[in-house]
Amino acid sequence: MITWVIYDIVKNKTRTLVARACIGAGLYRVQKSVFLGNLNRNQIDELALKCSDLIKKEEDSVYIFPLCSDDFKKVKLLGQAFDKELVSDEIIAKFF
Q1: What's the pLDDT band for 57 if we cut at 50, 70, 90?
Q2: Domain boundaries along the sequence of the chain
Q3: Most buried residue, 3, 60, 63, 71, by most Cβ within 10 Å?
């Protein structure tokens, strides 16, 4: 399932750890605090648990948005959107 992870994290160390967790889960960085990739339900749950353990819930936010293929096809890309060299061809093919 196509999954977006978007976060707003106060401390650099925590932000780095969450970014590493996203990359470790197989997601691609599309902006500084935005990741995108294919994850199954178990992987989404694992990533959510990791991120929950890393962040301070009083000051940080992590959003995990799983999308079905039909909904993903409705996503609108405006301007530069993301660096196509950083995102897999499989994901790019779903946009176009």
Answers
A1: very high
A2: 2-90
A3: 3
Q: Quick one: pLDDT band at residue 22, thresholds 50, 70, 90? A: very high
**Assigned fold of 2-90:** Alpha-Beta Plaits (3.30.70)
Decide if 47 contacts 37 (C-beta within 8 A). no
For residues 17 and 46, give the distance between their C-alpha atoms in angstroms, rounded to a whole number: 15
Q: What is the pTM of this model?
A: 0.81
**Burial of residue 38, with CB atoms counted within 10 A of its CB: 0-12 exposed, 13-18 middle, 19 or more buried:** middle
Predicted pLDDT of residue 49:
98
With CA atoms as reference, report the closest residue to 40 among 72, 22, 66, 18. 66
**Residues 6+ away with beta carbon under 8 Å from 84:** 92
In this structure, what DSSP letter does residue 87 have? S
Whole-angstrom distance, CA of residue 26 vs CA of residue 49: 16
Quote the tokens at residue 27.
Answer: 């997601």
